[in-house]
């Protein structure tokens, strides 16, 4: 009984996102400046080899970025922290920034295809999470989605115990060999259509963990991934944005439709 | 219609003779006693039906027996119990015939005799109107039970001995009780007891009669023979004992109430509380036993409790002269008797089919048996659902009436009645709850469950005759619920001698709606349920079909979800034993659960050097056992004194002729002295 | 040195803290036994001759070595003879000559898959069966399989199978510079990133003989204590969830979120990653001292209020009292760490017994000795620690005000040699056994988290408990599987 009054004590704590913009300014992914030109030695800065040269320009694979900040600290002019919640992409290639104009058309097509596939589960999504070798922090961030601040239940998003009831498979970790078979069993048990989200840099590319004798280089090697979310770990806002993207509830402008 | 009665009894006689003469050597002769018995059962059912319709049936025995006016008479009460007992005896006999026809099932003569003897004595007990005829048939029944339970060779003799010992206790109690009454009324005719005045002797006789019949129905604390006796009986013969013969116990109780009517108050309350306790103890054991036959046997104890509770409500009604209370109590009890007779026969017949096909009744080895033995499995499921009291089955109607009967306690002013009634109500409700657990296990794990690693090998399901028997009983379980108002009308006619038919008939609120006799309390229409529930189900299925537009059957099948595990070796799902372990813990006070966990240490170390294959496998040992409280605390302490008494008595029987002559002389002198003193 | 030496030191009061292998069977596996004294850490080496793959097991004399020897067998293929149950743990494989990871060896295989055929089941007796619980469990959990061996209701034994998320990190460390290695150390056990980074850096600094500036020491302790509060709140959430207290779950979830946001406001990362670097810390906090103080004070008020309410909720306490008991003798014998150990009477706390960073400059209240060893005692210990952490935070904020402009790190020269670093994570003591080559790169890095040490006794904690107690016992341990198998 005292808990009822305690629960009412602080009023509504829940964020307005995605209806109203909200973010927590986490500095966990780097981004090169739009027109930054390549200088030798930039690739040495990154512990995971995310920085590379393309046609004389600096390109950064956010799917490999672990947010250590080495590049931002060393070259504040060339690199900065990625802002905003919408870092998730529908293709692995689109995680390499700055974005190229030619990939936009492909992305639009991907988005339409995914949107058609997920039409039936737009307003009520059930998520099955699988840990395929995470460091444990990703689980905290996923669990945070159910706390009163993010409260994803208000958006019709639920976590289920059984994959039999799930529409969306949320995978964390680099894809350890030990989890390959259980991951396949889980995917097999899910009803179709199914959407797979690779949550976190480890899941996208293996991050700092790969190459290792015990893991794959990201879960893309193990099952077809629809949505890629970088970050080590990705913040709850970015995870939420990715889930909305996966179910076609995010317009190009980043607002819920 | 007297001819039908004679015909039935003669057919049983023929069956007995046939078994004795032909033996078991010829394949065609083995099922013969049971087929004759089935015909006899039909004849006796017809007799009963005629009796219920009011036809006078009376078979004079003066010519055979020399002790005065002795008849086999079928009044309405006898007729009701003839219908109940021999109605189920028909399919049971057919199943017995199917079982006996299989090679090597019956290995020695005598079983057919015992069967015929059992059925014939049931018929005679129900129709006897003379004390000695009654007692003679009762003793024959005890003997027949002994023969059945002792039939299986190589099986321990204890069940048969316990069965006959308690049968003797029952016979003794009835003998003394009936003789006390006869001494009061000056006649050996049963109807003459109806007019006896209320004295202490009559009350004592009342209690002795109830005790005698309680042994047969399996009431606490004289139920101990029942589970082991039933389990020891071979194949479908268990159904003969538990579904057919047990009804004579109930008949005896009903007859006692009809003749003596007003019981002493204490007796009514004691019977009520014992009934409640029996029900709980029975279902507690039924829930946790690991052997199918034993589960079903203990559910007989539970049902004995439930039926006795209804009977006790009627006794309280009689003691307080509230006729509607007598009516509701007896109506509930009779309905439960019918449901129990049908379901118990079905369960034991199905169990026999399963045992016949698999060679075992261990529940842990019988998972998913319904997928493999369709007929026996279905029978088991319907029987279990009936005894669990689910809607659409006969058990639902009877348990509804029973609980409604117990709820009438507010109509009694005295705390001495209302308090025991309330306590018993709670016990019966608890029993109903555990019955669900017990039979969910049977239906969910044994009939429908997934297969386990230790599954029994199969031969084949019971033959066509057995299937027909199971089908009849299963249909009976469902059909009597659908026509419950009709059933109420028949029972009302049958109970006419105890409580006027008009009172019982007020249980019918409308032609298809029943109520607990007292008007404006509550009502139920089982017939409407029988129509509307299947209709709803069909409607839902139709809607699914309609909206799925043909996709309903286009499904992708994947293995059951087991948290993505790669699997573990050995037993990896809930076993029937494990399913009931929570019950074992919750009811530890009733069941006296003893659980022991021990670690089996490995002797040698490092796994490469261990010579034993999969040495890591030997790690944990767990045993859990339950104890019969009554047996432990009532009978076990009696065992030593009893043994000493027997040893002493044996010394008298030393085989010397002169000693026996001496005993005769002493007895004669003693009787003479007694007569002299008394006169 | 020999095993007698180890036993002798333990008889003299040393505690078995870790056992790590090094090299491979061909060249002879070196076994480093880490012993903790009340005021320091020693390493004792046992060298197996080349080609020898077996040795007399330590476990019969030292029960705490039970899991370490199983892990040694999985990673190096050496057999502890006389071990009570040498079942696979982190990397199941059938015995044979296939290449094993062998951290510290010259060559490593590029691909080793766990082979589930090597796993065993231990059930026997009437009605006993195994209930596999995992690796994909109901809820958002890390991948681990608990094979509950049960006759229904009781839990006679739980078989822990954590190998699913083995990531091969010990091998991954090899060849890294200390600057890169600390990034990986943060990801060994993601929910205790700061503590792992600290233990790693302490080892590096020990090798380099570097002195960490005071401001950096304070910032390190600041983050370590915030991490502790977040972890203990997480345990409270899981316990509240197990008991079905929805409001309490939401309240503690909100507090935890605010702690993580505070950490992110201080350094940009919600887990304090990137803060600790060898030699000091990376940068000054992004948050002003006054705002930090205000936010910490609000948190303290809210958390202590809800914690007090929780500890008065009878329906909750009933589920904890006597659940998952580990008695004092057992706790001391196994040297259990962190709140699990302290709840059972093992007082050891690296912050105070082997102090590092700012802790020698901070003071603490007298601690309550607890030895009930049940889930309740563990939660009480956690609340005590949360209170203490807030005390420490207040002191740190005070002290930090005097040193805002100081240098934040000293240079760590390329180092060589072997050292052990430690830190007290929310789960308990973290150890890093570090060996650097002459090129200044890591040759061998063996982290040991408290999760590994404590999870080994998980299956002993179910005396008298039933299946519905399982989530309480699990949550009360508060461990991370990532840190168990790495």
TrEMBL record, chain A:
Entry keywords, A to Z: 4Fe-4S, Iron, Iron-sulfur, Metal-binding
Q: Which InterPro entries match?
A: 4Fe4S_Fe-S-bd, Complex_I_20kDa-like, NADH_UbQ_OxRdtase-like_20kDa
4Fe-4S ferredoxin-type domain ranges (all copies) = 56-84
Q: Which cofactor does it need?
A: [4Fe-4S] cluster
Q: Which PANTHER family match?
A: FORMATE HYDROGENLYASE SUBUNIT 7-RELATED, HYDROGENASE-4 COMPONENT I
Q: Which family does it belong to?
A: Belongs to the complex I 20 kDa subunit family.
**What is the protein named?**
4Fe-4S ferredoxin-type domain-containing protein
Question: Lineage of the native species?
Answer: Bacteria, Bacillati, Actinomycetota, Actinomycetes, Pseudonocardiales
TrEMBL record, chain B:
Q: Which parts pass through the membrane?
A: 6-22, 34-57, 77-101, 113-138, 158-183, 204-225, 237-254, 266-288, 308-335, 380-403, 423-448, 468-488, 528-548, 660-678
Q: Which InterPro entries match?
A: ComplexI-like_HydComp (IPR052175), ND/Mrp_TM (IPR001750)
One family from Pfam that matches here is Proton_antipo_M
Q: Membrane topology per the record?
A: Multi-pass membrane protein
Q: What does the UniProt keyword field contain? A: Cell membrane, Membrane, Oxidoreductase, Transmembrane, Transmembrane helix
Is the keyword Phosphoprotein in the record?
no
Instruction: Please list the residue ranges annotated as the NADH:quinone oxidoreductase/Mrp antiporter transmembrane domain.
Output: 128-408
Presence of keyword Cell wall biogenesis/degradation:
no
Where found, per UniProt? Cell membrane; Membrane
Q: Which domain of life is it from?
A: Bacteria
The protein here is known as: Proton-conducting transporter membrane subunit
Q: What is the lineage of its organism?
A: Bacteria, Bacillati, Actinomycetota, Actinomycetes, Pseudonocardiales
Automatic annotation (TrEMBL), chain C:
In terms of InterPro entries, this protein maps to: ComplexI_49kDa-like, NADH_Q_OxRdtase_suD, NADH_quin_OxRdtase_su_C/D-like, NADH_UbQ_OxRdtase_30kDa_su, Ni-dep_hyd_lsu, NiFe-Hase_large
The residue ranges of the NADH:ubiquinone oxidoreductase 30kDa subunit domain are: 46-93
Q: Which Gene3D superfamilies match?
A: Cytochrome-c3 Hydrogenase, chain B, NADH:ubiquinone oxidoreductase, 30kDa subunit
Keywords, ordered alphabetically: NAD, Oxidoreductase
Q: List, for all copies, the residue spans of the domain called NADH-quinone oxidoreductase subunit D.
A: 255-401
The protein in question is named NADH-quinone oxidoreductase subunit C
In its UniProt entry, the species of origin is given as Amycolatopsis ultiminotia
């Amino acid at each position: 009984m005292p808990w009822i009054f305690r629960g009412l004590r602080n009023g509504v704590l829940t964020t307005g996102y995605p209806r109203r913009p909200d973010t927590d300014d986490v500095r966990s992914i780097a981004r090169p400046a739009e027109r930054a030109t390549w200088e030798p030695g930039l690739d040495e800065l990154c512990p995971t080899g995310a920085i590379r040269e393309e046609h004389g320009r600096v390109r950064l694979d956010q799917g490999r970025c672990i947010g250590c900040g080495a590049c931002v600290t060393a070259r504040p002019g060339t690199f900065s922290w990625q802002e905003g919640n919408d870092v998730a992409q529908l293709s692995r290639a689109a995680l390499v920034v700055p974005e190229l104009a030619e990939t936009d058309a492909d992305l639009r097509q991907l988005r339409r295809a995914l949107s058609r596939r997920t039409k039936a589960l737009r307003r009520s999504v059930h998520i099955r999470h699988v840990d395929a070798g995470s460091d444990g922090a990703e689980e905290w961030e996923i669990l945070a989605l159910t706390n009163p601040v993010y409260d994803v239940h208000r958006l019709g998003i639920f976590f289920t115990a059984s994959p039999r009831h799930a529409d969306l498979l949320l995978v964390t970790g680099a894809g350890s060999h030990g989890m390959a078979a259980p991951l396949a069993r889980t995917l097999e048990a899910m009803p179709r259509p199914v959407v797979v989200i690779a949550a976190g840099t480890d899941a996208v590319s293996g991050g700092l963990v790969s190459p290792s004798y015990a893991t794959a280089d990201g879960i893309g090697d193990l099952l077809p991934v629809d949505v890629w979310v970088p970050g080590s770990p990705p913040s709850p806002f970015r995870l939420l944005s990715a889930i909305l993207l996966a179910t076609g509830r995010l317009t190009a402008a980043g607002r819920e439709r | 219609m007297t001819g039908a009665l004679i015909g039935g009894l003669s057919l049983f006689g023929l069956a007995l003779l046939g078994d004795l003469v032909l033996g078991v050597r010829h394949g065609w002769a083995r099922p013969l006693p049971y087929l004759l018995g089935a015909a006899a059962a039909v004849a006796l059912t017809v007799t009963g039906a005629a009796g219920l319709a009011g036809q006078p049936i009376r078979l004079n025995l003066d010519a055979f027996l020399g002790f005065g006016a002795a008849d086999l008479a079928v009044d309405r009460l006898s007729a009701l119990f003839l219908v109940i007992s021999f109605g189920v005896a028909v399919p049971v006999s057919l199943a017995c015939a199917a079982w006996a026809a299989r090679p090597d099932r019956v290995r020695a003569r005598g079983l057919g005799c015992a069967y015929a003897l059992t059925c014939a004595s049931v018929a005679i007990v129900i129709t006897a109107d003379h004390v000695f005829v009654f007692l003679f048939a009762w003793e024959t029944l005890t003997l027949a039970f002994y023969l059945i339970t002792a039939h299986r060779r190589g099986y321990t003799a204890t069940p048969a001995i316990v069965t006959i010992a308690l049968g003797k206790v029952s016979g003794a109690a009835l003998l003394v009780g009936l003789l006390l009454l006869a001494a009061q009324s000056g006649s050996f005719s049963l109807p003459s007891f109806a007019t006896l005045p209320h004295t202490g002797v009559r009350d004592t006789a009342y209690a002795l009669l109830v005790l005698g019949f309680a042994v047969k129905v399996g009431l606490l604390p004289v139920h101990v023979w029942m589970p082991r006796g039933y389990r020891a009986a071979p194949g479908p013969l268990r159904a003969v004992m538990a579904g057919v013969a047990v009804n004579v116990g109930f008949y005896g109780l009903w007859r006692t109430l009809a003749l003596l009517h007003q019981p002493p108050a204490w007796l009514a309350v004691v019977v009520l509380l014992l009934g409640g306790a029996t029900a709980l103890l029975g279902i507690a054991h039924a829930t946790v036993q690991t052997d199918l036959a034993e589960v079903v046997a203990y559910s007989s104890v539970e049902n004995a409790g439930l039926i006795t509770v209804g009977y006790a409500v009627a006794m309280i009604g009689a003691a307080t002269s509230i006729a509607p209370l007598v009516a509701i109590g007896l109506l509930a009890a009779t309905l439960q008797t019918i449901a129990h007779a049908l379901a118990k026969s079905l369960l034991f017949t199905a169990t026999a089919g399963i045992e016949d096909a698999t060679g075992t009744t261990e529940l842990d080895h019988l998972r998913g048996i319904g997928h493999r033995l369709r007929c026996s499995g279905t029978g088991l499921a319907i029987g279990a659902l009936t005894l669990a009291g689910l809607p659409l089955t006969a058990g639902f109607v009877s348990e509804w009436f029973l609980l409604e009967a117990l709820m009438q306690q507010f109509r009694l002013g005295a705390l001495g009645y209302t308090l025991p009634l309330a306590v018993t109500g709670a016990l019966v409700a608890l029993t109903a709850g555990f019955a669900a657990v017990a039979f969910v296990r049977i239906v969910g794990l044994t009939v429908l469950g997934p297969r386990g690693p230790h599954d029994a090998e199969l031969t084949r399901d019971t033959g066509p005759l057995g299937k027909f028997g199971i089908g009849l009983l299963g249909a009976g379980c469902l059909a009597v619920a659908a026509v419950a108002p009709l059933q109420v009308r028949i029972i009302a006619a049958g109970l006419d001698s105890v409580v006027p038919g008009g009172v019982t008939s007020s249980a019918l609120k409308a032609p298809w709606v029943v109520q607990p006799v007292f008007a404006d309390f509550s009502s139920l229409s089982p017939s409407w349920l029988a129509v509307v529930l299947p209709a709803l189900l069909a409607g839902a299925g139709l809607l699914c079909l309609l909206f799925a537009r043909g996709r309903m059957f286009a499904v992708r099948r994947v293995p059951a979800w087991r948290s993505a595990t790669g699997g573990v070796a050995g037993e990896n799902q809930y076993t029937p034993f494990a399913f009931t372990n929570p019950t074992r813990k919750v009811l530890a006070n009733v069941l006296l659960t003893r659980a022991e966990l021990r670690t089996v240490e490995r002797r040698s170390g490092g796994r490469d050097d261990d010579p034993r294959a999969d040495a890591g496998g030997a790690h944990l040992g767990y045993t859990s056992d339950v104890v019969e409280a009554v047996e432990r605390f009532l009978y076990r302490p009696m065992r030593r004194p009893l043994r000493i008494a027997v040893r002493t008595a044996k010394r008298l029987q030393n085989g010397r002729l002169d000693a026996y002559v001496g005993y005769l002389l002493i007895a004669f002198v003693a009787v003479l002295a007694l007569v002299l003193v008394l006169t | 040195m020999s095993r007698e030496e180890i036993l002798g030191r333990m008889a003299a009061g040393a505690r078995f803290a870790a056992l790590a292998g090094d090299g491979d069977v061909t060249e002879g596996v070196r076994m480093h036994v880490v012993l903790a004294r009340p005021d320091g850490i020693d390493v004792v080496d046992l060298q197996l001759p080349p080609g020898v793959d077996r040795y007399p097991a330590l476990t019969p004399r030292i029960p705490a070595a039970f899991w370490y020897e199983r892990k040694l067998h999985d990673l190096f293929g050496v057999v502890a003879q006389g071990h009570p149950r040498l079942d696979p743990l982190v990397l199941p494989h059938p015995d044979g000559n296939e290449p094993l990871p062998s951290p510290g060896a010259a060559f490593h295989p590029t691909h080793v898959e766990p082979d589930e055929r090597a796993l065993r089941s231990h059930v026997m007796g009437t009605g006993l069966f195994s209930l596999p619980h995992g690796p994909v469990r109901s809820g958002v959990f890390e991948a681990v399989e608990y094979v509950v061996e049960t006759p229904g209701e009781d839990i006679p034994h739980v078989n822990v199978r954590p190998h699913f998320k083995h990531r091969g990190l010990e091998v991954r460390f090899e060849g890294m510079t200390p600057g890169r290695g600390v990034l990986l150390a943060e990801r060994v056990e993601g929910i205790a990133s700061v503590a792992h980074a600290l233990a790693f850096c302490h080892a590096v600094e020990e090798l380099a003989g570097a002195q960490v500036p005071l401001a950096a020491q304070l910032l390190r302790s600041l983050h370590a204590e915030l991490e502790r509060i977040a972890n203990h709140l997480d345990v409270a959430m899981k316990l509240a969830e197990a008991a079905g207290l929805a409001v309490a779950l939401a309240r503690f979830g909100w507090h935890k979120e605010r702690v993580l946001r505070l950490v992110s406001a201080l350094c940009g990362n919600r887990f304090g990653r990137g803060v600790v670097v060898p030699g000091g810390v990376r940068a000054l906090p992004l948050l002003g001292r006054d705002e930090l103080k205000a936010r910490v004070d609000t948190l303290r008020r809210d958390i202590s209020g809800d914690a007090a309410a929780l500890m008065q909720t009878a329906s909750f306490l009933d589920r904890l009292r006597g659940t998952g008991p580990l008695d004092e003798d057992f706790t001391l014998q196994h040297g259990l760490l962190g709140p699990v150990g302290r709840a059972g009477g093992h007082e050891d706390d690296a912050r105070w017994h082997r102090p590092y960073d700012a802790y020698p400059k901070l003071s603490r209240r007298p601690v309550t000795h607890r030895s009930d060893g049940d889930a309740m005692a563990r939660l009480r210990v956690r609340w005590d620690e949360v209170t203490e952490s807030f005390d420490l935070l207040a002191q740190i904020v005070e002290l930090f005000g005097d040193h805002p402009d100081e240098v934040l790190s000293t240079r760590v020269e390329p180092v060589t040699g072997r050292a052990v670093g430690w830190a007290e994570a929310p789960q308990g003591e973290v150890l890093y056994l570090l060996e650097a080559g002459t090129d200044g790169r890591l040759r061998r890095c063996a982290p040991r988290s408290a999760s590994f040490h404590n999870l080994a006794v998980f299956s002993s904690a179910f005396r008298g408990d039933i299946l519905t107690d399982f989530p309480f016992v699990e949550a009360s341990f508060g461990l991370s599987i990532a840190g168990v198998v790495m």
